[in-house]
Amino acid sequence: MKKMVFVVLFLSGCSGLTYAIENYQSVDPVSFTNGSQGFRVFDKPNEGRLMITPTIGQAMAQGATFGAASTAQNTYKQASLAYLATTGRNCTSTEMSLVVQPQWEMFYNCS
């Protein structure tokens, strides 16, 4: 199933694809639902960062976009923080950037 995520990455554009593969290929994704949206989270707690993507089904249903990147950033940030909270970590986002539409990376600090 992990390989399918990278197929979606490839289909959504090559910019950032190498970065995603190099940094998250070995991470098993966790399925997470925030509200009515499903996500796959590739968490690297030892590095204080994660990549969050829509589920494959949602990406296909929505054409691999959730609207403009600026709108999506807040959606993905809130979902990322909600995911971290479910793991018992109290974290804040320090940086968030688009890897390749619609995959976002968030760096975080936890207390």
Topology:
Elements: H1 2-11, H2 17-24, E1 30-34, E2 37-44, E3 49-54, H3 56-61, H4 69-86, E4 91-100, E5 103-110
Antiparallel strand pairs: 1-2, 2-3, 3-5, 4-5
Question: What would your notes on this structure say?
Answer:
The chain is an alpha+beta fold and 111 residues long. The chain has one domain (2-110). Helix content is 38%, strand content 33%. It has four helices and five strands. The protein has helices spanning 2-11, 17-24, 56-61, 69-86; strands spanning 30-34, 37-44, 49-54, 91-100, 103-110. The longest helix has 18 residues, at 69-86. The protein is globular, with a radius of gyration of 13 Å.
For the biggest sheet, the summary is: 5 strands, antiparallel
Spatial gap, N to C terminus: 32 Å
| Number of domain units | 1
What fraction, in percent, of the residue positions are helical?
25-40%
For the residues shown, what is the average pLDDT? 83
- What is the 3D form? globular
Distinct helical segment count: 4
